[in-house]
């Protein structure tokens, strides 16, 4: 098993120095940002590591793990609101999307015994699921609102033909979901060809047999694919409901909010 | 103020319609009626509330106050989906959907046969070969005709036409005006929004003058302006902005 120790970590900071050096040489003005991001990441990871160290003690209740998952979901939902601030009540929608996705994906992995349910597995898998779904969730939210804004007349022309809101919205929801899902599908296709994925790399560095690492990685990949699909679909359908009234009218969003898309 | 030709039950009756807007209301207590007959032109300066009035007729917009009656029925009490098939609408800019012209017509009626599609296209002066054309590759005038044809597929009693010639060339404009007159002759009521006074004179059987969110004058095309308030007379003389 690899253990780089504090000295190894300190030496790896040389690579941050390389980035800073390049920034100085090319006058990018990014030295401060590089140092700040590297330091912040280290502090965040150390804090998480210390907390995990406590939680991974043998007699700690699994509920602490679920509480951690809940906090991750709330933070992810707040991030979605910050990056896609246009839909009223988007935080609750995002909470629902992430929680629903967690129920489906973690339900499959733990329910069928792919992994044993313990804090050691719950927190990393939930983190992978939420972290990888976040970008796609933001993307589908922004894209969908932009679609309904850009194509407002087209959507209203469908409504004016007597189409119900869900039917009138369907082509735009489909397009937004495709936009959000295709990058994940492409990433899944290319995995192993261009770069070894994170979980597998970590396991191999930690001394795990490569075939065992591949099995874990494949399960993780499917977890991510399933969670991205579930989260974006819940999000898209939820946003669609919020952008139409019950009597099949398209809601007019504030110009300022739409402009920020 | 009232059009002498308004029948006992108008096509649309507006009662104190108010729709809020940014800075000023888009409709500010608009009251009046569209007669159940021919072509009614809603005319007024840009931003006066004509389009909002039209959108209240098929419930793409609902008023904050007041009511719209369609042939005597409060539209607020009607099923919006069936109302919109009875009250069709063509928009300012052509709104062709992705796909062929046939695909576009089938959005309005998925079970539409090729014969029915060809007949509908003929009503708007387009030949059958258009059915296989890419709807988004058509000229503005052709696309607007396809949009009208798409609306006619639902067999509407009324077609609301919201400045439909503003983005087409003069030949297409004339064609669309002729189509509106033909539809009216065939019994389909037309409510046509424009700020173009010449177009109003060419088309209108009845006119509603809309200024600052209110219907300030209504009359037949021949009698228009005789007893109009000063703001309407100024607009009809082409003086008001």
Radius of gyration of chain A: 22 Å
Oligomer designation: heterodimer
Return the structural class of chain A: mainly alpha
Order of helices and strands of chain B: EEEHEEHEHHHEHEHEEH
As residue ranges, the low-confidence spans of chain A are: 255-261
Chain-averaged pLDDT of chain B? 92
Beta-strand residue percentage of chain B: 15-25%
Low-confidence stretches of chain B: none
Distance between the termini of chain B: 21 Å
Largest interface: A-B, 16 and 25 residues
Provide the helix percentage of chain A. over 70%
Could you walk me through the main structural features you see in this protein, from its secondary elements to its overall organization?
- The complex is a heterodimer of chains A (261) and B (241).
- In chain A, helix 4 (90-111) packs antiparallel against helix 9 (210-243) and helix 7 (165-190) runs antiparallel to helix 9.
- Residues 255-261 of chain A have low confidence and may be disordered.
- The N and C termini of chain A lie far apart (47 Å).
- Helices cover 78% and strands 0% of the residues of chain A.
- Chain A has helices spanning 5-25, 31-55, 62-83, 90-111, 119-150, 152-160, 165-190, 198-205, 210-243, 255-259.
- Chain A has 261 residues and is mainly α.
- Chain B is α/β, with parallel strands linked by helices and 241 residues long.
- Chain B contains eight helices and ten strands.
- In chain B, strands 6-7-8-3-9-10 form a six-stranded mixed sheet, sandwiched between helices. Chain B has a four-stranded antiparallel sheet with strand order 2-1-4-5, with helices on one face.
- In chain B, strand 4 and strand 5 form a beta hairpin.
- Chain B starts with 11 loop residues before the first strand and ends in a 5-residue tail after the last helix.
- The model of chain B has no long low-confidence stretch (mean pLDDT 92).
- Classes of the chains: A mainly alpha (261), B alpha/beta (241).
- The A-B interface holds A 153-154, 156-164, 171, 247-250 and B 58-62, 80-82, 84-85, 88-89, 91-93, 95, 97-98, 107-108, 147, 150-151, 153-154.
């Amino acid at each position: 098993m690899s253990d780089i120790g504090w000295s190894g970590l300190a030496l790896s900071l040389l690579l941050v120095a390389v980035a800073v050096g390049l920034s100085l040489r090319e006058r990018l003005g990014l030295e401060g940002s590089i140092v700040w991001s590297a330091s912040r990441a280290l502090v965040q990871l150390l804090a998480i590591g210390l907390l995990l160290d406590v939680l991974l003690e043998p007699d700690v209740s699994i509920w602490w793990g679920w509480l951690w998952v809940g906090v991750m979901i709330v933070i992810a939902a707040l991030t979605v609101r910050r990056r896609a601030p246009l839909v009223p009540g988007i935080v609750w929608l995002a909470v629902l999307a992430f929680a629903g996705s967690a129920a489906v994906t973690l339900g499959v992995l733990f329910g069928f015994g792919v992994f044993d349910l313990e804090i050691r597995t719950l927190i990393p898998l939930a983190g992978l699921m939420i972290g990888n779904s976040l970008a796609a969730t933001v993307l589908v939210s922004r894209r969908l609102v932009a679609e309904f804004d850009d194509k407002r007349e087209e959507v209203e022309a469908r409504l004016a033909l007597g189409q119900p809101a869900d039917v009138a919205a369907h082509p735009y929801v489909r397009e937004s979901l495709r936009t959000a899902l295709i990058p994940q599908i492409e990433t899944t296709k290319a995995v192993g060809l261009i770069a070894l994925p994170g979980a597998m790399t970590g396991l191999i560095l930690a001394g795990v047999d490569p075939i065992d690492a591949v099995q874990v990685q494949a399960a993780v990949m499917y977890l991510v694919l399933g969670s991205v699909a579930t989260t974006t679909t819940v999000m898209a359908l939820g946003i669609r409901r919020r952008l139409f009234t019950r009597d099949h009218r398209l809601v007019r969003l504030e110009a300022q909010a739409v402009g920020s898309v | 103020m009232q059009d002498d030709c308004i029948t006992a039950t108008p096509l649309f009756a507006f009662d104190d319609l108010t729709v809020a807007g940014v800075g000023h209301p888009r409709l500010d207590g608009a009251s009046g009626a569209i007669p159940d007959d021919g072509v009614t032109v809603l005319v007024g300066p840009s931003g006066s509330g004509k389009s909002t009035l039209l959108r209240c007729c098929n419930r793409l917009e609902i008023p904050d106050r007041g009511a719209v009656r369609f042939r005597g029925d409060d539209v607020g009490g009607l099923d919006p989906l069936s109302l919109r098939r009875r009250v069709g609408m063509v928009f300012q800019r052509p709104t062709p959907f992705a796909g062929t012209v046939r695909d576009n017509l089938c959005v309005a009626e998925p079970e539409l046969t090729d014969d029915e599609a060809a007949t509908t296209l003929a009503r708007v002066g387009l030949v059958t070969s258009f059915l296989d054309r890419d709807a988004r590759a058509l000229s503005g005038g052709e696309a607007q005709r396809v949009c009208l044809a798409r609306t006619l597929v639902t067999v509407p009693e009324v077609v609301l036409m919201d400045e439909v010639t503003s983005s087409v060339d003069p030949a297409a404009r004339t064609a669309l005006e002729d189509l509106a007159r033909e539809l009216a002759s065939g019994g389909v009521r037309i409510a046509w929004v424009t700020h173009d006074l010449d177009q109003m004179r060419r088309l209108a059987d009845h006119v509603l003058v809309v200024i600052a969110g209110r219907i300030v004058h209504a009359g037949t095309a021949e009698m228009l302006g005789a007893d109009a308030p000063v703001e309407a007379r100024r607009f009809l003389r082409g003086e008001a902005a």
